[in-house]
Amino acid sequence: MPFVQIHLIKGKSSESLAAISNAIHQALVEEFHIPELDKFQVINELEEGKLIFPPEYLGIPHTRNMIYIHITAKQGRTVEMKKKLYAKIAQLINEKTQISQDDIFIVLTENSEENWSFGRGKAQLIE
Fold first, then answer.
1. Helices 14-32 and 79-97, packing angle to 10 deg
2. Distance CA 87, CA 89 (A)
3. Domain locations in the chain?
4. Residues carrying an active site annotation
């Protein structure tokens, strides 16, 4: 049930956007063991200057290919699972798009079951 928000600078092809989306989903399926159909994502393409980042941080250089990935997921994954997820997302995006792993910024926010509704105004995970 992760909800994924992808933010990047406008100008990527629809094929690249699909590859990024699919890479993130594949990593979630493999590392967080989510169901294949559990794909809820939003891609936000921003004008130049609307995605703010430093040219380098913690010794990691960044370019205009920077991608912010914000994943909201139910709590309960181990630190090791999270580390593997981050590595898998960066690896797969790089393999499928040639975007540097340096330009893949990931934030994971966790919450509990009562914070999700998949439709019909119901909290399906607790009902």
1. 150
2. 6
3. 3-115
4. 2
Q: What's the CA gap between 30 and 28, in Å, rounded?
A: 5
What confidence tier does 1 reach under pLDDT thresholds 50, 70, 90?
confident
CATH architecture of 3-115: 2-Layer Sandwich (3.30)
Q: Mind listing the pLDDT tens digit for each residue in 37-74? A: 999 999 999 999 999 999 999 999 999 999 999 999 99
Q: Which two tokens stand for residue 70?
A: 């914000």
Confidence of residue 127 (pLDDT cuts 50, 70, 90): confident
